[in-house]
Design brief:
The complex is a heterodimer of chains A (about 300) and B (about 290).
Chain A: H1 14-41, H2 51-54, H3 62-69, H4 71-102, H5 107-122, H6 125-136, H7 141-147, H8 156-159, H9 161-185, H10 190-198, H11 203-214, H12 216-230, H13 235-240, H14 252-262, H15 266-296
Helix pairs in contact in A: 1-15, 3-15, 4-9, 4-12, 5-9, 9-12, 10-11, 12-15, 14-15
Chain B: H1 3-48, H2 65-70, H3 73-107, H4 113-124, H5 128-141, H6 148-172, H7 176-184, H8 189-218, H9 221-226, H10 235-246, H11 251-275, H12 282-286
Helix pairs in contact in B: 1-11, 3-6, 3-8, 3-10, 4-6, 6-8, 7-8, 8-11, 10-11
């Protein structure tokens, strides 16, 4: 038995270095490494093929200059912002409404509605894309429903691509905010609401002046997390419209994919990746800062 | 104080309006539930409809032909096996590495503990999509492109920050006095981990593993970029190429394939939420 033999105690640092080594290796090699490489490559003219692939040169901030003067980048940024605002707004309002409506309902209703909404969230992104493609296509379900009201068929993915992907993403993401708001609502003390009601506050006033202020922190963290998830949505849009028609639903992740991997311009694509990382990183810092404040209270 | 009479009047007035509000709430909930359900009905109906279309409607009959016709090694078996290899591998690696890394963070007084934890938390917020371009460049240079092992390691790394965070919270929940008692009785640090912490942590690690499996199973972008040859494609990518090849004709088979690919994650998700007593929200877990 190994434990019988007297052993020299391990040096103090080994107690944590050895167990943490595998995790640290993976994180450094596949997470920190690529991010640092992103910063470097966005300053070069790295390419996948051709002469530039063999001879990568330092080009300074050229990629960023090119980026800012490129109308496609500006359009994509605008589309990303619209997509982001639409999704975050929709998911927050719907998620909060569902959480409020489901509060204090009987168990069966909660279970059924909850399962349906969460079902949309659990479905893999590719499948969510197919499902919404089938729903909005010219031959799809939406048009047959609208036909009852006398509306002519149209391919919604073509006439309103951005709205289509926003709706699909709200459908997929609402469960997340519903669940966090439900958890937050269950922590609002019942007697506070009761006291407000006794003082003559209407249901809406109780919601606005008592419940929402108490939910502030849950709201803030959820908004941040939704933003971080939404800014990187690629698969759903790629499956539904692949950025088209034209570039009318090409958000930044799609532009990044097209430039770096389809066209082989790694430097340009990496500059977009860095822009995304910086934006997400700022949100992430705020998120950590908020949790930390909570912990130190 | 005139509080009690007015209170009584209010109670009388508000009773019927409350009932109406309750009815309205159920109505709104019903409408929302239908709106959330309708898009996915297509997948279920078309998969068994002998004459499938893009329109979700009650099937004109019942057939399992769509399922049987896609059950070939090239379309289903091989991709599902690849998914099991990469996602299952990532789940095991994430669970093991998370446990090893989270134990010292939870138990020891380390100077870098707080900064490390905040860095891990920060990393959970970074978009994996944005890292894919540099990762692709790195895989090309290191000749790792189209390697199942390297893809598995990358998937594990991408879920590791969340795994460490979750596991650390689980270990925090195991009273340290149990271990101290074991040390007093002469157990080594390794023995106390092996015989005491590990069994108590097993359910938590299962949650971490299943969570990793669910997220990586649904991940399309990573294998789409990193695995190029058809025989290494996992189900997430294969179902998409199937859509590209036959999506505009073979609706029934596409629906059947989507259903086959979706059911495992739904089952796993239900298992986890059941295990955590129903009030499981991955979002809630993020909040720590």
């Amino acid at each position: 038995m190994a434990s019988v033999r007297p052993r020299r105690p391990l040096p103090r640092a080994a107690r944590w270095v050895i167990p943490m080594a595998p995790a640290l290796f993976l994180l450094l090699a596949f997470f920190a490494g690529p991010i640092l490489w992103t910063v470097w490559a966005s300053l070069t003219n790295a390419a996948l093929t051709g002469a530039q692939a063999a001879q990568t040169e330092f080009v300074g901030l050229d990629n960023f200059g090119e980026l800012l003067s490129d109308p496609r980048f500006r359009t994509a940024t605008l589309l990303t912002v619209v997509f982001l605002v639409g999704c975050v707004f929709g998911q927050t309002v719907l998620g909060l409404a569902l959480a409020l409506l489901l509060q204090n309902r009987n168990g069966a209703v909660r279970a059924v509605v909850g399962a349906i909404v969460v079902g949309a969230w659990v479905v893999p992104e590719v499948v969510a894309g197919f499902v919404w493609y089938a729903f909005l296509e010219r031959e799809g379900t939406l048009n047959s429903v609208l036909a009852w009201f006398g509306a002519g068929p149209q391919n919604w993915l073509f006439t309103a691509p951005l709205l289509a992907v926003v709706l699909a993403n709200i459908w997929k993401g609402t469960a997340f905010s519903m669940m966090t708001y439900s958890a937050g609502l269950s922590e609002v003390p019942e007697d506070l609401k009761e006291a407000a009601r006794v003082d003559g506050a209407s249901g809406f006033q109780v919601l606005w002046h008592v419940v929402i202020p108490l939910l502030r922190r849950t709201l803030a963290t959820t908004l941040l997390l939704i933003t971080l998830q939404t800014v990187q949505v690629f698969t759903l849009i790629f499956v539904m419209t692949s950025g088209g028609p034209g570039a009318r639903s090409t958000t930044l992740p799609l532009l990044m994919y097209q430039e770096a991997l389809r066209m082989g311009d790694l430097g340009y694509g990496t500059a977009i990746a860095l822009a995304l990382l910086v934006v997400a990183g700022l949100f992430s810092v705020v998120y950590v800062w908020m949790l930390r404040k909570e912990e130190n209270r | 104080m005139s509080e009690s009479p007015s209170g009584r009047v209010r109670a009388v007035v508000s009773a019927p309006s409350r009932a109406a509000g309750g009815f309205l709430a159920y109505l709104v909930l019903g409408v929302l539930a239908v709106l959330f359900l309708v898009p996915s009905l297509w997948m279920v109906f078309a998969s068994v409809d002998p004459e499938p279309s893009l329109r979700a409607g009650p099937p004109s009959g019942f057939t399992l032909d769509h399922f049987t016709s896609i059950m070939t090694p090239e379309i289903v078996y091989r991709p599902i096996w690849n998914s099991i290899l990469t996602c299952g591998g990532a789940a095991v690696i994430t669970a093991v590495c998370s446990m090893l890394a989270a134990y010292p963070i939870s138990r020891y007084n380390l100077r870098f503990k707080k900064p490390f934890l905040y860095t891990v938390l920060f990393a959970t917020g970074l978009p994996v999509t944005a890292i894919m371009v540099p990762v692709y460049g790195m895989f090309v240079q290191a000749n790792l492109l189209n390697s199942l092992v390297a893809t598995t390691l990358f998937l594990a790394a991408s879920t590791l920050p969340f795994g460490i965070w979750l596991t650390k919270n689980f270990i925090d929940g195991i009273p340290i006095t149990l271990e101290e008692a074991a040390w007093v009785d002469g157990a080594s640090a390794w023995q106390s981990i092996r015989y005491l912490v590990a069994p108590l942590l097993a359910p938590g690690l299962a949650v971490v593993a299943i969570f990793t499996l669910v997220t990586t199973w649904g991940n399309f972008f990573v294998p789409f970029i990193l695995l190029t040859s058809p025989d290494k494609m996992p189900a997430a990518v294969r179902v998409f190429t199937f859509f590209g090849q036959y999506g505009s004709v073979r609706y029934g088979e596409l629906a059947a394939y989507s259903l086959l690919y979706t059911v495992p994650v739904v089952v796993l998700y239900m298992a986890v939420s059941r295990a955590l007593g129903g009030r499981f929200a991955l979002g809630g877990a993020v909040k720590g």
